[in-house]
Amino acid sequence: FISQPRGCFNILFCVSLPLLMFLPKSDAEANAEAKAEAERKAAYIRIEKWSIDAVPSAISGDVQINVQEVQCGDPDCAPIDTAIAIVFSSGGG
Questions:
Q1: Using 50, 70 and 90 to split pLDDT, how confident is the model at 12?
Q2: CB 13: neighbour CB atoms within 10 A?
């Protein structure tokens, strides 16, 4: 019995696998990431409030609001856009 090294499918076909190592983020990188995430959450709250405020309170119980980030494929626009859909259960009829 011949032991095959890791990455070998048979004795004639071997693949050299690179060794990947984990490099933890520095404190500055972790703090910047945490700050960016906090700003992102604050933006979500602002968008949610704007969307709710756009619907009159008399009909707000009969509406579904969907907010999504979408990737824009146009090189002339921002890479991430925010799409807001306000859907009324009556279907507009």
A1: low
A2: 9
Tell me which residue of 69, 71, 60, 63 sits closest to 87, measured CA to CA: 63
Record the pTM: 0.53
CB 87 within 8 A of CB 54: no
Residue type, 2: I
Token digits for 39?
């700003």
CA distance 22 to 17: 16
86 Cβ contact list (under 8 Å, min separation 6):
51, 54, 55, 63, 64, 65
The 3-class secondary structure across the chain, one letter per residue, is CCCCCCCEEECCEECCCCCCCCCCCCHHHHHHHHHHHHHHHHHHHHHHHHHHHHCCCCCHHHEEEEEEEEECCCCCCCCEEEEEEEEECCCCC
Tokens 């009159």, residue located:
56
